[in-house]
Design a protein that fits this description.
The complex is a heterodimer of chains A (392) and B (250).
Chain A lengths: L2 H12 L2 H21 L1 H8 L4 E7 L4 H15 L2 E5 L5 H7 L4 E6 L2 E6 L4 H20 L4 H6 L5 H12 L11 E4 L4 E3 L8 H16 L5 H9 L2 H7 L4 H31 L6 H26 L2 H19 L12 H4 L3 H15 L4 H32 L1
Parallel strand pairs in A: 1-2, 1-3, 4-5
Antiparallel strand pairs in A: 3-4, 5-6
Chain B lengths: L2 E12 L2 E12 L3 E5 L6 H8 L7 E6 L2 E2 L4 H5 L2 E4 L11 H10 L5 H14 L15 H13 L5 E5 L7 H16 L3 E5 L3 H7 L2 E6 L2 E6 L1 H6 L10 H9 L7
Parallel strand pairs in B: 3-8, 3-9, 6-7, 7-8
Antiparallel strand pairs in B: 1-2, 1-4, 4-5, 9-10
Classes of the chains: A alpha/beta (392), B alpha/beta (250).
């Protein structure tokens, strides 16, 4: 009957003032500091200036009909579109110092980004996406749709959408292949996000990965008072003993992060995307983080080593995943960024916030879920070995 | 009386060091069995092997007529272990501590509440049930430690030095409760350094040294091993005579 064990372990963790500090006060303080400190950096993302963009119409269909309207909209957005008919797009981006290159086909388009001008690339993606979306939604009523277009969603939603009767322009159905200088990666357009939203979201995610320390009080009390021996005398299995730590730890962290999130919304006005998906992403991320932490703790049986190793791992994942330098401006290659589970979580949460949807949601859930299962299995296995070792 | 616990050639080695050496014990149902020995004699290791916290290098433990290792899960429900360490959580209230440990034996709902109240009443902590264990004195913590081990009504209670570092009143209270548990039908194994405690409550005593039992019997029988006139010797003198006066943990 581990429900009472879970309940009481939950109480032990929940009653710790240190945990309240770690779960609620610390993320709020970091959000306040970083969103303020990096507001200028995020503004540079919004203000990309004029752009010179190459394009090519590959298919004589839908895109051809769009051409005039597209150019007009581009001019309004300070984007100079130059047609190139036969050279390699990647070569052109390099040789002509273009902000990007777009090839249009029937129903799809490909954006080639300039790796040195990532902010421009993002803005270009969003521009093309928005144009396509308008076309799709309004059955190619180009003039009307393009007049309602603004580069960033805040502007379009606040001003022009009311004039045209249009709703949110954040829906995308188009797969976009972005080719940088060296590799082809799939990416979605990414409207601007301000520093409050970015750091407000990212640091809830980051802290949720650090919170294995919330179990420190319980773990050290169990060790100091040799409560493990008493649990062993009760005949409780290693799996149940693991669950009795894992479940309350996850619940306490979710509760703490929910309070921190609520407070960040009220205090700083952080805009989250879909509440359901965002909650699910953070919650499953927390299960992954806790199982990872418990695995380390079970292997080393030492809270100090656990905290050091977990913090090192989370710091590295955070570094790769945009917790410090935003992933939007990161110079790191995508393949390295993809090694971080925090990258998927950050990206899906930010895209949910700015676009209302993200291709990264399922990937993030799958990675966190797989991590939870693997780390839990290893933790139980390590616990069994350790128990045998202690008994020997 | 039937034998409730039997150890057969129980041995524990750590490398080349033999901590418990071919220990053969038979504990009868309904007795209070005292295990005395200097530091490092192997008492706690013996208790840990009986409770299956430590695996024996050789030998086996038979509990209620069954091989302990083969019937571990079933037999553990009849065992109550009160460790020397205070195995309680300071951030839980007294009743929550008892609930946590009692529930591990499958007791739930109304019966669990009943057992919590009963256990706390038994150790005299009913009025403190809603107070956090961290606010308790040493004696209260020791009593709570006992309450956490008796909620499932075990048939065999193993006390590993339960009166360390507490005042005479608390000690007296605990000893009275151990006797009462025994009167209610529980068999008790009791280890301590306090000779007068052991003499006061134990029906049979074993003296252990260097991993071996060197003498077993009632208090009177042990005294008679040293002198004929038992009124002229204390159990402590018997103990020192049998185990020697050399320091063990220098």
């Amino acid at each position: 009957m581990i429900r009472y064990l879970i309940k009481n372990n939950f109480k032990i963790m929940f009653r710790s003032a240190a945990n309240i500090l770690m779960l609620i006060v610390a993320p709020l303080a970091v959000i306040a500091v970083l969103s303020s400190a990096f507001s200028a950096l995020m503004e540079s993302y919004e203000d990309v200036g004029s752009m010179k963009v190459g394009y090519r119409i590959v298919d004589e269909g839908l895109s051809e009909q769009m051409e005039d309207g597209l150019k007009k909209a581009a001019t309004q957005q300070d984007i100079l579109l130059i047609e190139y008919t036969d050279q390699d797009p990647q070569e052109l981006v390099r040789s002509e110092n273009l902000s990007g290159f777009v090839t249009f086909a029937k129903g799809s388009y490909t954006v080639y980004e300039n790796e040195d001008l990532k902010g421009n690339g993002q803005a270009l993606e969003y521009f093309i996406h928005a144009v396509y979306e308008q076309v799709a939604l309004q059955n190619m009523e180009m003039t009307r749709s393009l007049s309602s277009y603004q580069r960033f969603p805040e502007e379009s939603l606040s001003d022009d959408s009311s004039e045209t009767g249009e709703g949110s322009d954040r829906i995308t159905e188009y797969p976009v292949n972005v080719i940088n200088d060296y590799s082809v990666v799939k990416a979605d357009h990414m409207p601007a996000v301000d520093s409050t939203d970015y750091y407000g979201i990212i640091y809830i995610a980051y802290f949720s990965w650090c919170t294995i320390v919330c179990g420190a009080g319980l773990f050290s009390a169990e060790k100091k008072n040799r409560i493990g021996n008493k649990l062993r005398v009760s005949g409780i299995s290693e799996f149940k003993a693991y669950l009795a730590k894992f479940i309350p730890l996850v619940l306490v962290v979710i509760a703490g992060m929910a309070v921190a999130t609520g407070a960040s919304i009220v205090l700083f006005g952080v805009h989250w995307g879909s509440p359901l998906w965002s909650f699910l992403l953070v919650a499953i991320g927390i299960t992954a983080a806790m199982s990872f932490g418990l695995m380390i703790y079970t292997i080393f049986d030492n809270m100090v080593i656990t905290v050091i190793l977990v913090f090192m791992a989370v710091w590295t994942w955070g570094f790769l995943g945009g917790s410090f330098e935003t992933y939007l401006f990161s110079e790191m290659s995508a393949s390295i960024q993809h090694l971080s589970p925090i990258y998927y979580l950050n990206r899906s949460l930010i895209e949910l916030s700015t676009m209302g949807e993200s291709d990264y949601v399922w990937r993030s859930l799958a990675i966190s879920g797989a991590m939870t299962v693997v780390c839990s299995a290893l933790a139980v296995f390590a616990g069994m070995i350790r128990k045998r070792g202690k008994r020997a | 009386m039937a034998t409730i616990l039997k150890t057969k050639d129980l041995t524990k080695k750590y490398g080349t060091k033999v901590v418990v050496d071919n220990l053969n014990l038979e504990i009868e149902e309904g007795e209070i069995f005292g295990l005395l020995g200097p530091n490092g004699a192997g008492k706690s290791t013996t208790m840990n092997m009986i409770c299956d916290i430590v695996r024996p290098t050789l030998g086996e433990v038979e509990f209620m007529g069954k091989d302990f290792r083969k019937n571990r899960k079933e037999l553990l429900t009849y065992l109550g272990y009160i460790p020397q360490d205070l195995a309680i959580h300071g951030n839980l209230k007294a009743w929550e501590n008892v609930e946590l440990f009692t529930s591990l034996y499958g007791i739930k709902g109304a019966l669990l509440k009943e057992r919590i109240d009963e256990a706390l009443e038994y150790v005299g902590l009913s009025e403190k049930k809603n107070e956090y264990a961290r606010t308790f004195s040493g004696g209260m913590k020791r009593r709570l430690n006992i309450a956490c081990a008796i909620g499932h009504h075990p048939k065999l209670l193993i006390f590993d030095e339960p009166t360390v570092g507490i005042d005479p009143q608390s000690r007296n209270f605990i000893l009275e409760r151990i006797k009462q548990s025994n009167q209610n039908g529980a068999t008790v194994i009791y280890t301590s350094h306090y000779m007068e405690e052991v003499e006061a409550i134990c029906t049979r005593i074993a003296i252990m040294d260097n991993g071996k039992i060197i003498a077993t019997g009632t208090s009177e029988e042990l005294k008679k091993m040293v002198v004929e006139d038992t009124s002229k010797i204390t159990l402590e003198e018997v103990f020192l005579t049998l185990t020697g006066k050399k320091l063990r943990d220098y």
